[in-house]
Structures are given as C-alpha cells and as structure tokens.
Amino acid sequence: MKARMPAAPFRLVVHTLALGALALTCVPPAAAGGTSAKVERGAYLVKAGACQDCHTPWIMGPKGPQPDQSRALSGHPADAKLPPPPPLNADWAWAGSGTMTAFAGPWGISYAANLTPDKQTGLGAWKEKDFIATLRKGRHAGDGRPILPPMPWEALAHMTDADLGAIFAYLQSLKPIANRVPDYQPPAAAAAK
Question: Is residue 19 domain-resident?
C-alpha cells in the first residue's frame, strides 16, 4: 500500500512551489540579466566615454570647474547667453565656452545636445534605432542635419549595436530635464553675432 501525504502538508508544498514560481516571474530584469544589465553597461560606457565632459554644463566648484550634476547630460543651458566667440586663426582654430557645452570653429557654433529623455527637448521621443543611426551616419536622427565638432561620432560609429543600444538605454533611464539647446549657427551667422 502506498503512503499518502496528508492534505495539509501537501497544500503547503503546492503553495510554496506556487509562490516560488510567482517570485521567479517577478524577478527584476537585473537579476535575470535583462534591461538593468543593459542600463548598467550603458552607464559604464557613458562614464568611460566622457560624455559628461561636453553634454553636462560645467560650473565653478570649490576645487575648480566641475560638471553640474543637477543638469547632468542636459546639454548647453538654454539660459546661457554667450557673447561672440573670440577671433580664431591657424594657431587657435576653435574655442569652447566656459560651460564646456558650446564650441566655435570653422564649422560655426555647435552646442552639446540634451541627452536626457525629455520628450520635447531631449531624446525622449527617440527610438533606439534613431540613436544608433545618428552615431553610425553622423546625422541627427540618422538623416537630419550633420553632427558637428567636437562630437566624436566617427569614433562612436565603431561601437557595436549592443553597446550603442546600452548607451541609449542608460540615457532613457535618466531623469528628464527640459532644456532646449540653441540651434547650430553656421559660420556666417556666427561671424555676424
């Protein structure tokens, strides 16, 4: 004769297994190696790539210039009105603003973009494919205006789709910051400024 498990302990085992299965379906993506791992990889690449050097406005801190982390990766401040750039020549071929977010050279004046996921002024309405196309082709959203110096898109174009996707995932995980960066100024407009 086979021994039967009493009903109460049997239900306890079934409930325990059911709760365990439910817990496995509720595991956050990081534990399963999913999205959070991708975001962490992107954070690492953004830090190693020094993206904040140009896309985060710099301020004067107790030890000298430093990135303003309250505006991390939000691009050139919309409220930072700059005077005309200094005269450039063969010895000084380009110049950068004190915020480290605006650059003048033979191409005109370029401003570091808002990389936060703000839908109106940043990358919030972008798709991963748009971001990857931008860095592959050197054109805004893959087919818009050219990406200008000093943005090193040519170097970033050598990254894998997985790494560029991880950077995009990280940028999308940030707090959105509304900051409309000024439009690029071509050389003639920059000279007339």
Answer: no
